[in-house]
Automatic annotation (TrEMBL):
Keywords: DNA-binding, Transcription, Transcription regulation. One of its GO terms (molecular function) is DNA-binding transcription factor activity. It comes from the Bacteria. Residues 183-281 form the HTH araC/xylS-type domain. SUPFAM superfamilies: Homeodomain-like, RmlC-like cupins. This is HTH araC/xylS-type domain-containing protein. PANTHER family: ARAC-FAMILY TRANSCRIPTIONAL REGULATOR, TRANSCRIPTIONAL REGULATOR MTLR. Transmembrane segments: none annotated. InterPro entries: AraC-bd, Homeodomain-like_sf, HTH_AraC, HTH_AraC-typ_CS, RmlC-like_jellyroll, RmlC_Cupin_sf, Tscrpt_reg_AraC-type_HTH.
Length: 295
């Protein structure tokens, strides 16, 4: 079974964020399914294809420009690309720094609202994506301070263009203070989501009492452990529905559900579609090849 790997984003030297460009044959991340606590802007200048973001598969044409919030699992955008001459510009930054700045500088208020909206992912339509994209392209190779000013301009442009929600779901909405311990919990879930797993068991593994762990987890993520466990099971089920021909029953049990009826009910509640309908809807889409987890 394939798991979303945690990507540790390392900022460039002398910079508080990361901005980079690549195209084949140099594709540093392949097509892996991953997530990270940083916001991410992706600009694909030309071509058409399909995005694999959260539990959603959506189409783009004439290039693409998206802003993804923290911890939204997604494939690299070369997966599902249906044209030739792929290239990609990516910016990864910590939104909490900008949100904190909005408390002191009114100029950042619009950006603060933008980042809140981006928690489910945003895409820019029409010619606007290329107007913003040209600014993004200019960031590559700039000195750190000039690159930072350009990031502010790009985010300001995002507030002025028409954006459409991608309706993606985060894995975990993390408190920055507790991200290390929550990541440890996530790794336990990823290793055991296909089996029975209790709050008592996880609490013991991270050295907490069960009641303290439950309070800590809700305070850190805004969700109960059971809610997050179910979401991760459903997320993995979506991947299997799209990328394998396993039966619904097999997928249900492989993802940790103890009955098919429970799986169907929770899948419908989380995705707004039945597993069969989800598979049928996307059965003609590009098959996603998900490499093994990268440490």
């Amino acid at each position: 079974m394939q798991k979303a790997s945690f990507e540790k984003v390392i900022s460039q030297s002398g910079s508080s964020f990361k901005a980079f460009y690549f195209k084949p044959p140099y594709m540093p991340y392949g097509g892996r399914w991953h997530f990270h606590p940083e916001f991410e802007i992706v600009y694909v200048p030309t071509g058409k294809g399909k995005r694999f973001i959260g539990t959603r598969i959506s189409q783009f044409n004439d290039g693409d420009l998206v802003l993804l919030g923290p911890n939204i699992p997604h494939n690299c955008f070369n997966v599902g690309f249906e044209s030739e001459n792929y290239e990609e510009y990516v910016i990864q930054f910590k939104g909490e720094d900008i949100i904190e700045a909005s408390k002191y500088f009114v100029e950042f208020e619009g950006v603060d609202r933008l980042l809140t909206m981006a928690s489910a992912g945003l895409s820019v339509k029409g010619v606007d994506k290329h107007l913003v994209g040209e600014e993004i392209k200019q960031m590559i190779g700039l000195p750190p301070l000039e690159r930072l000013f350009k990031l502010f301009k790009v985010l300001q442009l995002f507030t002025k263009v028409s954006c459409q929600s991608l309706d993606a779901r985060q894995y975990l909405s993390l408190s920055v203070v507790n991200i290390g311990r929550i990541r440890e919990v996530y790794e336990i879930i990823q290793d055991r989501y296909h089996a029975s797993i209790s709050t008592r068991e996880v609490a013991q593994k991270i050295g907490m009492t069960e009641s303290s762990f439950c309070r800590f987890f809700v305070k850190s993520t805004g969700k109960t452990f059971k809610q997050v466990l179910t979401e991760i099971r459903i997320q993995n089920a979506c991947n299997l529905l799209v990328n394998t021909d396993a039966t619904i029953t097999t997928i249900a049990f492989d993802c940790g559900f103890n009955s098919v009826s429970l799986f169907n009910r929770l899948f419908k509640r989380n995705i707004d579609e039945t597993p069969n309908r989800y598979r049928q809807k996307y059965m003609d889409h590009v098959q996603v090849s998900l490499p093994a987890k990268i440490a």
